[in-house]
């Protein structure tokens, strides 16, 4: 008797066909705004940009077909080539420094230090600031007349020089310093979350075997943080591609074009030089580069996840 009542209750709990259809329709209605945003705001603008890049558009869009003329002009532009070289240098230094510093900060906090909550807040706080604010602050710090160099001179070190921000050779590295200060806290938070998920049995086994703590981190713990590391890499890579605000705030792309980056090149040709055809071609090249780098990364990550699920 109890089994019959339970079976009847389960049948009543199951949504009927019409109810299921209504729930499905409600779900599609809820997703419609986001789907429309993706289709029109993202895919639509990408297709429109690709179309404009194949025309002789200048101040206004034109339908005069130009083929790959804009792309040829783009790669004959020394300023564009220089911006690509700068973004590669910046990207390698920025991502490497953020990962190393973020991991070290996470390991430091993972030792259950005093005032752990306050330290987490201090390290993560710079990430809450805008890149414009960060750029302005570091512009003052690195200004030879006001910042570190001036302080050293007032302390008696009259021969000390720290004028990277006005040096064509080192200007790009000032952007690395400023943005690493801002973004390393994010990496620290991601790594710390991963570290707190490590099984305590690993540490117990390491202590029994007499393995030094640094060796456990280097050989066992950090390799186990592959998911956190890959997430941090993707977020940092997106920051590299989007780099614009800090450049404008700190160096304006100078001195000369020493700190020019693709995003600033695109914005200048789009609004200041009234050449939307060339700016669109640069945007498509940048998009293709991002897809060429991230697509194999996500493919390998999904394959590894499927392989792990099967095992």
From TrEMBL:
Residue intervals passing through the bilayer: 87-109, 121-141, 170-195, 216-241, 276-300
Name of protein: Sugar ABC transporter permease
UniProt xrefs under PROSITE patterns: ABC_TM1
ABC transmembrane type-1 domain span: 84-297
Any single GO CC term annotated in Swiss-Prot or TrEMBL for this entry: plasma membrane
Family assignment from sequence similarity: Belongs to the binding-protein-dependent transport system permease family.
Compartments where located: Cell membrane
Keyword field contains Transport: yes
Pfam family, one: BPD_transp_1
Keyword tags: Cell membrane, Membrane, Transmembrane, Transmembrane helix, Transport
Gene3D superfamilies reported in the protein's UniProt record: MetI-like
GO annotation, biological process: transmembrane transport
Annotated membrane topology: Multi-pass membrane protein
């Amino acid at each position: 008797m109890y089994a019959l009542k339970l079976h009847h209750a389960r049948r009543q709990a199951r949504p009927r066909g019409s109810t299921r259809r209504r729930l499905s329709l409600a779900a599609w209605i809820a997703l419609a705004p986001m789907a429309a945003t993706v289709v029109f705001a993202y895919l639509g603008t990408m297709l429109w940009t690709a179309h404009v890049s194949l025309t002789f558009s200048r101040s206004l869009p034109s339908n005069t077909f130009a083929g790959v003329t804009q792309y040829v002009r783009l790669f004959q532009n020394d300023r564009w080539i220089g911006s690509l070289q700068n973004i590669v240098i910046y990207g390698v230094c920025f991502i490497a420094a953020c990962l190393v510093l973020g991991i070290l900060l996470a390991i430091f906090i993972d030792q259950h230090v005093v005032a752990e909550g306050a330290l987490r807040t201090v390290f993560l706080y710079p990430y809450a600031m805008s890149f414009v604010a960060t750029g302005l602050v570091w512009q003052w710090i690195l200004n030879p007349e006001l910042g570190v160099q001036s302080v050293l001179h007032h302390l008696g070190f009259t021969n000390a020089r720290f004028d990277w921000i006005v040096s064509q050779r080192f200007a790009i590295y000032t952007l690395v310093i400023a943005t690493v200060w801002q973004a390393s806290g994010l990496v620290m938070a991601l790594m710390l979350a991963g570290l707190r998920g490590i099984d305590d049995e690993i540490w117990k086994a390491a202590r029994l075997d007499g393995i030094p703590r640094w060796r456990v981190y280097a050989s066992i713990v950090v390799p186990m943080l592959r998911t956190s590391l890959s997430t941090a890499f993707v977020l940092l890579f997106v920051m590299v591609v989007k780099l614009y605000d800090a450049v404008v705030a700190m160096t304006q792309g100078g001195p000369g074009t020493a700190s020019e980056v693709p995003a600033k090149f695109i914005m200048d040709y789009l609004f200041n030089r009234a050449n939307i055809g060339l700016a669109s071609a640069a945007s498509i090249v940048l998009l293709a580069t991002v897809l060429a780098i991230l697509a194999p990364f996500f493919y390998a990550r999904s394959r590894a996840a499927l392989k792990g699920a099967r095992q």
